[in-house]
Automatic annotation (TrEMBL):
Ranges where the TadE-like domain occurs: 31-70
Phylogenetic classification of the source organism: Bacteria, Pseudomonadati, Pseudomonadota, Alphaproteobacteria, Hyphomicrobiales
Native source species: Rhizobium lusitanum
TM annotation in the entry: 37-58
Keyword annotations of the record: Membrane, Transmembrane, Transmembrane helix
Pfam families per UniProt: TadE
InterPro entries documented for this protein: TadE-like_dom
Name of the protein in question: Pilus assembly protein
Domain of life: Bacteria
């Protein structure tokens, strides 16, 4: 390289040093990866947590649905009745405990939950026809699709042999990730209380002709 080819050849040593230092600073990549990771880490982990929480919530929904199917089968075959003269006689608390046992792989019911519903709500009734069975989620407001669950009239009164019955289960699943809350929750009380993902599972059936 000739002096004419070097743009710094005709400058003073001090200026050459300053320009060289500036170029070195601009070209330096020391710590860039750490800064880039710091900028991307928060949204990255939010997305990861959102995916995990969505998976867990849908898994919980499947577990509740399986519990409804299992206990509905026991009602249908006469293994669970409200006839005090039979060995299959089951109280409301015993039925709730049996349901909690079915979902215990992921959802834990406290002793107070078995006695007094706080998150898990069960409704078991007999009907005169399938057409008379409810087809919507009972809510406190008929105009607000996100209003809270209306548990008025929830009871445990299954029918006997050959009767038509419906089992409905609702579980208030808490959403932790803020990113998911506006999209996954389906109960958003107007009073500002916590929004939840209401897990819903139902089964309608006719009991067998058991003795």
């Amino acid at each position: 390289m000739t002096p004419d080819d070097d743009p710094l050849a005709n400058t003073s040593p001090a200026r050459r040093h300053a320009r060289g230092g500036l170029r070195g600073f601009v070209r330096s990549r020391d710590g860039a990866a750490a800064i880039e990771f710091a900028l991307l880490a928060i949204p990255y982990f939010l997305i990861v947590f959102a995916i995990i929480e969505t998976f867990v919530a849908f898994t919980a929904e499947q577990i509740v649905s399986n519990a409804v199917d299992t206990l509905s089968r026991q009602i249908r075959t006469g293994q669970i009745t409200v006839d005090p003269n039979k060995t299959s006689y089951t109280t409301t608390q015993q039925f709730r405990q049996a349901f909690c046992n079915e979902i215990s792989v992921l959802i834990t019911c406290s002793s107070s939950e078995v006695q007094t519903p706080a998150n898990l709500y069960l409704d078991v009734k007999t009907y005169t026809s399938f057409a008379s069975m409810p087809t919507t989620i009972p809510r406190k407001s008929s105009t607000d699709p996100y209003s809270d669950l209306d548990t008025t009239g929830f009871t445990f009164t299954p029918g006997g042999s050959k009767s038509l019955n419906m089992v409905r289960a609702y579980y208030r699943w808490q959403i932790i990730t803020d990113l998911l809350r506006p999209y996954l929750t389906n109960v958003r009380p107007s009073d500002g209380s916590a929004s939840v993902y209401l897990i819903v599972a139902t089964a309608a059936f006719q009991n067998e002709n058991y003795p």
